[in-house]
Queue: 3 jobs
Job 1
Amino acid sequence: MSTTPTPSLLRTAIWLGWAAAFLVLSYAPRFGGLFSLLSFTGIVASLRLALGPDWKYGAGLAFGARGLALATGLLGCLFVVDRALIHAVLERHGAELVETGLPFHRSYLQTLNEEILAGAVPLLWSPLRRWRSSAVVVAVLFAVAHDAVSFGRLEPLTVVTLAAVGVVRNVLIVRAGHVAFSWAFHLAWNLTFFRGALVFEGASLDQPDRFNLVLGDPWLALVAGLLAVTLVALPVVREEPVGQ
């Protein structure tokens, strides 16, 4: 039996590759939100061609006004909680977040782009959606990818925390069938965590060291781990894959 991809599968792979390539545009801080917008536009266009008529479901974008309203409320609550949590961790370590007072513009669509490609597509469209452990598998891959782009500088506990947070976001995607709630979860953290310079022992930390200081904190890791285990243990995951 031949393993050569059919033309339709090849086209799908090509357009998924384009979608992944467009994700890179999200990480251009000097251009603010402009490149994140171009990235989002390219991702959506590519997924429309890759996934077919039901692309919104596979991309996790099939949420209505009610879902968006609930996600907005969740964003507001998490913004307050995350600020308090980050402040508590920094105080424990004698560090300080020097806020610029300016919104982190590219984070709005950058986080959405990540939730679509690193969350919705594998969990709601790809064959992984049939695995009951898919939320965990995808979360671990996402955490390892963070370490890879940080050139292996993330500490093991930091990677564990990232994986635990990823499980929480992924369970929200699988349960809701869209990315609105996981997007709120991700965006609230980024709007607080990257709101200014993180100063520790007189030096401004770069991103890997910032991750290690905060996400590598044992208490924060414990909170993230308990939340992830609780959500996985509760019957909140769909019994059937979305679209089945």
Job 2
Amino acid sequence: MSSDEDRIILRLLAREWEHSGPPGILSISDIVAAVELAPSETLQTLKKLFTRGLVDINSMKTSAFLTPEGYEAAETR
């Protein structure tokens, strides 16, 4: 079961996916600015989503994007 924080971030990345095309890449700083969560909470949620395979993060840890499973999870919520 996903938390509200999970849903917020998944939907944000899904909107980017739909707007710009897969995989919906956003900088982590843009994600932090766009959601109404504390920065630490946003980063913790991104890490949790990464661990579950719903979000991937670039090697420099500056951007996050949805995996196909993450997009599917965002769409089913």
Job 3
Amino acid sequence: MNNKFKCTDGTIITLALDVDLNKFLANKNMTPNAGKVMDLFLNRGYEMSAIPGSFIKMLSASEKELSELPNILDEIDKLNLKEIFNANLEVRSFTPSFLNRVKEAMEKGIPFVNPDNTFIKEIKTAEDFKSFTVEAKEAPNNSVVDNPSIVEPHEVKQLDVEDLNVKSNIISRLGEINSLNSDSTLTFIISSIIANLDSVLSNDNKAYRILGERHIVESALQGVALTPEMQNMINNTILAAFPENNMNMERGI
């Protein structure tokens, strides 16, 4: 099968084997910036050896879209999300509006990727994402229907100052871990933990005073579908940053 795609500017790319070239013949005449687009991604370490069909229209980027791309790609790098975006090579993934939704999800602790690193369907359009965030806010345990990474519903009591301090400490430490490890699976795990913190802290009755923050992190992982590889990553990368009874040691108990 001929899976080579020659663009208007002479750039030749290799398409993924499952791409039907005939569906994209019309795009060939609209790719004068294809080489520039490819260089932007390749220079930042993206894997572009087999291009999916969903990315072909990116090669038709206008001058305006091309001018926006460097800032978008730089922002993705700063967020340590390159591997996730590389697993979602499609035009909408690299737009300012989509990136803003991802950032909002991260800020609110809402999981935005599936276990296979593909973006959840709810984040792909502004309308779906708006409904999704409303559901996440209104759900009794800050959970989202049909998201397997969220723990079972429980009544959530409002967190007090001490609970919020514990939550802030955990999120801060998880953020440090994520910034030091560019791994999309780790990002999924961390976002799942953050999404469950309110529910766990609300129902913990301050057991963390004795058991420490590690206990909260472990509880926040209950209900998350984990592979052996993910569990190993949790043990060696995440839980290693939360020693047993760390709060007690800090308080001199």
